[in-house]
Amino acid sequence: MERKSDLLLYFEDDDVDAAFERIAPHVELIHPVERQAWGQRVFRFYDPDRHAVEVGEPQVIAPEN
Asked: Which of 50, 52, 33 has the alpha carbon at shortest distance from 42?
């Protein structure tokens, strides 16, 4: 039985490509590494409980002046 979840777990990795190579063979991918509209590169997959997991490169947010 497939469950729907609105939960998204988020992690950062300094080397998102290496993280993808380590993790991708062992999970059901939602999508491979992609650049998002805001410039961050991320990939997503489902964990065993069908929660979405996102792994992205660290994002630097500049303070507003």
From this structure: 33
Q: What is the pLDDT of residues 6-58, one digit of tens each?
A: 889 999 999 999 999 999 999 999 999 999 999 999 999 999 999 999 999 99
Q: Where are the beta strands (DSSP E) in the chain?
A: 8-12, 28-35, 41-46, 52-56
Give dist(CA 55, CA 2) in Å, integer: 23
Entry pTM: 0.84
Give the residue extent of every domain in the chain: 8-56
Q: What's the CATH architecture for 8-56?
A: Roll (3.10)
Residue pointed to by tokens 């979840």: 5
Task: Report, in angstroms and rounded to the nearest whole number, the Rg of the chain calculated over CA atoms.
Answer: 13
What's the rounded Cα separation, in Å, for the pair 61 and 63? 6
